[in-house]
Amino acid sequence: MQYCSKCRVFIENPHERCPLCQGKLEGEAKEEEKLFPDLTEQKNRLFLGFRMFTFCCIALIVLGLAANVMFPMKIFWAGFLAAAVTCMWILTTVAFVKRRNLLKNTLWQMVLLCGVFVFWDFLTGYRGWSLEYGIPVVILAVFPVLTVMVKLMKLPAAYYMIYYLLTCAAGLLQLLFWAVGLIEMHRLCVLCGAVSALVFVGLWIFRGKYVVEEMRKKTHM
Length: 221
Hints:
This protein is an all-alpha fold. Helices cover 70% and strands 3% of the residues. It is flat, with a radius of gyration of 28 Å.
């Protein structure tokens, strides 16, 4: 550590002269300590891992198509494999991009999973299982996931309210699907709508102030 004999002070960071009297300093200068950690290497490793995952997905699709062409079968299974890998890549990519906001990430995953279920329902010959089983189960699973994250991170109501309200809206939408005849097996649909309604009522009773604020923000009232 450098020392100024005139001012009788030690200088932590490297200086050519004393910052007080501009006199000569004694001793050897230590390397300047960084105030913030360097996350460049960690970030590079993270992006490298994502690029490797993307390459593996593409390789799996290409190898599957090649194998299906070399050994043809009645069913073009490579197409289903490509669709499955693509869906997995999309879900993983969104999770990677939205990793800094776990609540928003959860909502994105809910929307994407619902879309994936509908896509596969139509791809395999539409039978309605996506609306009757897949989507209600996903929405019902989101409520406990949000609750656990809110409790663990000790988030204020103003921060998480919008995510609960959007999930409630998605759950109540299932009742509309049932009302217009899109859903035949209505048990899960009714359960999803009932749970969503109860969550909304609970939020209104115990966190009504924040519910009103969020609704005003989104409707600009």
